[in-house]
# Entry
Amino acid sequence: MPITPTANIWMNGELVPWEQATTHVLTHTLHYGTGVFEGIRAYETPQGPGVFRLTEHIERLHNSAKIMMMDLPYSVEELVEATKDVVRDSGLPSCYIRPIAYFGYGEMGLNTLPCSVDVAIACWPWGAYLGDEAVTKGVRMKTSSWQRHEHNTMPPASKTTGNYVNSSLAKVEALKAGYDEAVMLNPQGLVSECTGENIFVARNGRLVTPPVSAGALEGITQSTVVAIAADHGYEVIVDDLARSDLYIAEEMFVCGTAAEVSAVNSVDDRTIPCPGVMTSAIAADYARCVRGELDKYSHWVELVK
Ligand code: PPE
# Structure
């Protein structure tokens, strides 16, 4: 999806014009995929832009860095404030936000310990990640021939840039085959997640989502969905799913900051009823929740003003 240059970008404490937010080709992370990043959305509210679960996203960035033995030079509080500055400065009513921390210029070789750490935060307007009709018509999924990382290969709990080589291979394979998105299985053959979303499946009237132990990222949208589902009285369990559980799902959706809640209409050409009743209700409430329209969750919307 294209990005439009729209806003100043925060780099190591300064807001710099979009075109000047560049790095040297010998930046360490460019060579070894060792950066960590986040994907966050700000939504329009009557009080101006509100960033959804901002603090939790920045906490996850810190955790990703910790897993990578990267010492972030900014605290959670500082990066929360910096993110608000970027959004406020952009003047955008809503946007996608991409914080990234990376090993910088000056060292080469796989030892990251002597490297400098740079941090940048950018934002831009970004539409529906899996297409405008994802919520109503649903997306076509294909099981990937690429496996999700095993825990001792690349830690899936860290949003490390290099982890996304796996996601990109799977995404391109699915698109080339005429599908919208890939389902990733782990080395044990169990369902893990998608290239950039967590998975929910309805089986026997209750929702099932795979655990972190299956190689899924601990999704912030996933946890929002669990809360919303409970409000509707839907039972949610975190459990392993086999590929065949997807084929006979009563309904299915995927969720993530970029993709929000997107219904799935088929997996490997097995049709799934779409959009399901639970999916539609959860997608509608998610859209309200992120805009601060559900009182119970309004504290999740961190206003930039
Ligand atoms: N799994 C993966 C692998 C993943 O990348 C994401 C977010 C999720 C699950 C959902 O996590 P959360 O956003 O906390 O609900 N993917 C981000 C990056 C997508 C991209 O293309 O880049 C996102 O949704 O922002």
Notes: The longest strand covers residues 95-103. The first helix runs from residue 28 to 32. The chain is about 25% helix and 25% strand. The mean pLDDT is 96.
